[in-house]
Please model this.
Amino acid sequence: MAGPRTSETQRRGRRPAVVTVLDMGSTKTVCLIARMVPSDTGRYLSARTHQAEIVGIGHTRSLGMKSGVVVDLDAAERSIRHAVEAAERMAGVTVDSMIVNLSAGRPKSTICSASLTLKDKPVSQREIEQVLRAAVARAARVDRHVVHLLPIDHMLDGERGIVDPRGMIGSELTLNMHLLSADVAPVRNLELAINRAHLSIETLVATPYASGLATLVDDELELGCACIDMGGGTTSIAIFSEHRFVHTETLPLGGHHVTMDVARGLNCRLEDAERLKVMQGSVIATSVDDRDIIQVPSMDEDRHEGGHQIPRSLLNRIVAARVEETLEMLRERINASGCSSVVGKRVVLTGGAAQLGGLPDMARRILGRNVRIGRPLGVRGLPAAAKGPAFAAAVGLMVYPQVAADDHSSERFRGTASVKRTGTEGPLGRMTQWIKESF
Ligand SMILES: Nc1ncnc2c1ncn2[C@@H]1O[C@H](COP(=O)(O)OP(=O)(O)OP(=O)(O)O)[C@@H](O)[C@H]1O
Ligand SMILES: [Mg+2]
Model:
């Protein structure tokens, strides 16, 4: 995804563009409209060609969504309309299509490879294109929605990690691609909710990939690292190595499950449980907290009456148990994927639940790596409330077109049954011309 640092001539050749993105989360729906201004963003983010200047933002509580999946079309449509209309009013523009994140449909990463026998001469551009076409054709046979199809590396006679095989000799050239797929029905339902609001999807981007694009710096991308997005209903991870997005895992668990545990464990309403978790909760339960007493409001109608007191350590134990379980499941998934060594020494935490007290320490212990909180980088005009880790995915959706040239997922759907089923070109076939022309 990253090329060499952009030259001044290249920079001048680029045009400003307006990009609209929609982060449909389990707890919040965010629409951002940004003017993308050609720039060299600086020494940390060399893959970026444009800087985003936010001109419109709409933000509302998500309705009809559960763990990233649309469960009520009418309600989801209302949230989308609210968020998009607010952003449109602020920006003074009318939007008809957007780049949207995807957490639904049990996203799954696999390696899609294709090989080519070489004649007795050095590898040329022709062979590179031929092996790419073969890999894309192979991906076309997958019966799930292909969200991303990104090159990982070339192999020459079984030797991995060849970045550019042009001019090299060997007898067999192989291309390995990261194929990220999702179940078709949840993708279609997401598209339906958006179409009902008279909008369409430009392209879909896996949520943790977007979060990584917004928060990771060049050294992390080069050395290998993982971005974990801990949202309200999902926790997902994107693994990056040598500037490539190579693997993802998604769990249908997030901050909302912590809130439900607190509500059940302390016998209180969900809204009180949420407040207690955010204001007083931590994933670190210390003995000092045994003496720190907090008030839990009662479930009754008259909430000023009754209620009960508990030691803060009880709240923290409930919060810690769920988060620990989630991180351990993620660790098992990373180990099972064979990508553990690729992750390197660094994990970046994003998503609203990343703000839980003590989370970096717990993640450091369970994942055995350095951990930092990731905030969206290289974007101007975000209000203070949107500068935190919960907005990483939304900002990453604006970065995606700048690195999308490598993504061959759209080729998968050109002229296939999926396109016909949708009745639109939809997300299922299109990285529209403006993206290709502007970046
Ligand atoms: N300051 C905070 N401390 C702890 N938790 C927080 C804080 N702020 C928000 N959260 C939690 O973050 C979660 C929401 O995160 P986020 O906004 O990233 O979710 P989402 O994008 O809507 O959902 P998802 O990505 O899972 O579909 C909620 O569970 C909320 O309780
Ligand atoms: Mg999210």
Notes: The CA atoms of residues 263 and 271 lie 9 Å apart. Residues 25-28, 62, 68, 103, 207, 231-234, 254-256, 259, 274, 278, 351-353, 355-356, 390 surround adenosine-5'-triphosphate (ligand 1) (CB under 6 Å).
